[in-house]
Amino acid sequence: MASKFKRIALMGRYSTKQAQDTLEKLISFLSKKSVELLIENETGATLPEHDLPIVDREQLGTACDLVIVVGGDGSLLSAARAVAESEVPVIGINRGLLGFLTDLSPDNFEQCLDDILQGDYQEENRFLLCADIYADDNICRVGSALNDVVLYAGEVARMIEFELYIDDQFVYSQRSDGLIIATPTGSTAYSLSGGGPIMHPSLNAMVLVPMFPHTLTSRPIVVSCDSIIELRVAATTSDIHPGISCDGQQVVALSPGAKLRIHRKDKGLRLIHPKDYNYYNTLRTKLEWGSKLGKAK
Asked: What CATH number is attached to the domain comprising 97?
């Protein structure tokens, strides 16, 4: 049967021998299918021998109709930011640690991929966030994030002062190490370690999680994903150099007195899962929750 996807790009965590072995195994498998294979430039540079066409990461969205990521969630986050604008679907083979987003096992991905190539899979849309800095009548785009946008102090054991506005309404002023603004996708990442709630990926919401606030009454807030979040850093923090990160990978310094605005990105990530994918099973497995109790005798 002909493949639903005709041009497939490969991208991955290329720093480990295990990931390289899986990439080579994946190339061998897909080479037998009626598809055209491409490889992202940094990934291709790490493989000792291959004759696949190279494509720049920034061009992935226009070069293929499916991206397969070999690596952990960080690798998939990079792919998501690269292709979300063009709405090219992404699926991951897990070569990371937890792997909430990379579903396929590196040991037996072949059957799942066979089904996916034939159009037998689940698909969902995960929204991203955009972050912009407003300072001195200038606008600077920080980047986009599938997991989270984080305001942080930039120095160890230092606090910053900032004000939070949601849809132009003042919420609070705070002294803390910073603030995490996370999507449902990112609710199982940095936000979770900061005490934030786990949110189902289908929720149209985002959560704001304070980082070590200087008050016992500060708690996470869940708001609509259509809200506009604005953070205003106090001008009195001139001796501190706060920063903004998107998915922990894009980092920009924020000057005192500047404003950070965060909003939902127009286009989201098309994330593909195997046909038997179950979100709660993923949580149970990754977070080591208890399984079903045995039947009572």
From this structure: 3.40.50.10330
Q: Say if 293 falls within a structural domain.
A: no
217 lies in the same domain as 116: no
Structural domain containing residue 278:
7-126+268-286
Q: 229: domain CATH number?
A: 2.60.200.30
Residues 281, 219 share a domain: no
Residue 12 resides in a domain? yes
The reported pTM is 0.92
Residue 292: inside a domain, yes or no? no
CA triple 61-64-70, angle to 5 deg: 85
14: its two tokens: 């290329």
Catalytic residue selected from 56, 65, 73, 167? 73
Q: Summarize pLDDT for 149-192 with one digit per residue, the tens.
A: 999 987 766 889 999 999 999 999 999 999 999 999 999 999 99
**Active-site annotation holds for 73:** yes
Give the DSSP letter string of the chain.
Answer: ---S-SEEEEEE--SSHHHHHHHHHHHHHHTTSS-EEEEEHHHHTTSSS--PPEE-GGGHHHH-SEEEEEE-HHHHHHHHHHHGGGT--EEEEE-SSS-SS--B-TTS-HHHHHHHHTT-SEEEEE--EEEEEEETTEEEEEEEESSEEEEE-SSTT--EEEEEEETTEEEEEEEESEEEEE-TGGGGTHHHHTTPPP--TT--EEEEEEES-SSTT---EEEETTSPEEEEE-TT-TTS--EEEETTTEEEE--TT-EEEEEE-SS-EEEEE-TT--HHHHHHHHTT---PPPPP-
User: Is residue 248 assigned to a domain?
Assistant: yes
